[in-house]
Amino acid sequence: MSGDDFDPRWLDAAIPAKHWHFHRRLYAHYGIVLAPGDFGSMLRDIKRGRAQWLRDMGGGKELFAIRIRSDFERIYLIVKQRHYVITVLPPTSDLRKLRLLRDLEGGGAKVRVVPKRTED
């Protein structure tokens, strides 16, 4: 299916008005239009602890890094109380560094340290 083809899963589907801001920002920052079901999967991953938590933003807001299943793109979200997506942030070097730091702390992919080989 090319990018211009209509996905039939969108028949009789709609994006609620309360989520329009998120979808506009997602397209502006990443050029992504979610496939049907991606938004719900993203929320389930956050609720079930499969999304990578990055930091507390205060006021019940948290920052997460998550991969979009249909696109394999990593995005950065601000979520309120783990069930309401407020917005998506652009991918910056600071966010990438924070994500990598969390990985090293054990909050993500495991990093294996290989000792330097010495000559006898």
Keyword list:
120 residues, alpha+beta, 4-stranded antiparallel sheet, 30% helix
Name the poorly predicted regions.
109-116
First-residue to last-residue Cα separation: 58 Å
Q: For the largest sheet, list the strands in their spatial order.
A: 1-2-3-4
Q: Helix and strand succession? A: HHEEEEH
Q: For the residues shown, what is the average pLDDT?
A: 82
Helix content: 25-40%
> What is the count of β-strands?
4
Q: Could you describe the largest sheet, including whether it forms a barrel?
A: 4 strands, antiparallel
- Total tally of structural domains: 1
Which term fits the overall shape? Answer: globular
Radius of gyration: 17 Å
Number of helices: 3
Alpha-beta classification: alpha+beta
Proportion of residues in extended strands: 15-25%
Task: Write a brief caption for the model.
By secondary structure, the protein is of the alpha+beta class. The chain is built from three helices and four strands; from the N terminus they run ααββββα.
